[in-house]
């Protein structure tokens, strides 16, 4: 229980300022309880906390990840969560928005000049290393990716 609290503290710290004590992505994911509550992404959408938005339309928002894992690392989210805390919660009604998000990833990749290729990732649940429970696509590019992923 104590280690879980420490992980949570580290996650909170990671939203205050980048520093060496910042929890690893894995720690953050393992300490994040799957939930339908508002997330940090709601604050980003409401401009309550700053972010670098690179694309926006009526249904999707794309902004740079605060902890980039590649020269280009962008998160693409639906503006309305509609129960999509993660991909595992997808239902038939979400097909259209899921398609739009993938297409948005392609548009943003082009906008970012990722002509040689890129990677899209959706982490799901604790085992998938998901730390923010508002569905998002990671768009990564600008370096050679490896396979298998970690
Ligand atoms: P997940 O681990 O859930 O797949 O991805 C969540 C992502 O959100 C992580 O890559 C993390 O760096 C990013 N992130 C967390 N908090 C913030 C924030 O306040 N601003 C931005 N731009 N990205 C964030």
From TrEMBL:
One of its GO terms (molecular function) is adenylylsulfatase activity. Residues 40-150 form the HIT domain. The active site is at residue 136. It comes from the Eukaryota. InterPro entries: Histidine_triad_CS, Histidine_triad_HIT, HIT-like, HIT-like_sf. Gene3D superfamilies: HIT-like (3.30.428.10). A motif (Histidine triad motif) lies at residues 134-138. It holds the Pfam family HIT. PANTHER family: HISTIDINE TRIAD HIT PROTEIN. This is 14 kDa zinc-binding protein. It comes from Rhodamnia argentea. The gene is LOC115737710.
């Amino acid at each position: 229980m104590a280690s879980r609290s420490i992980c949570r503290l580290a996650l909170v710290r990671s939203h205050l300022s980048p520093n060496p004590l910042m929890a690893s992505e894995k720690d953050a994911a393992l300490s994040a309880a799957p939930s339908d509550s508002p997330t940090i992404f709601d604050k980003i959408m409401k401009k309550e906390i700053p972010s670098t938005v690179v694309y926006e339309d009526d249904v999707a928002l794309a902004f740079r990840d605060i902890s980039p894992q590649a020269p280009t690392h962008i998160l693409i989210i639906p503006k309305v969560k509609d129960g999509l805390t993660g991909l595992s919660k997808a239902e038939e009604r979400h097909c259209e928005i899921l398609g739009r998000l993938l297409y948005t990833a392609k548009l943003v990749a082009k906008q970012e000049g990722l002509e040689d290729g890129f990677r899209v990732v959706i982490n799901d649940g604790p085992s998938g290393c998901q730390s923010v429970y508002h569905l998002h696509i990671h768009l990564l590019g600008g370096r050679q990716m490896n396979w298998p992923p970690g």
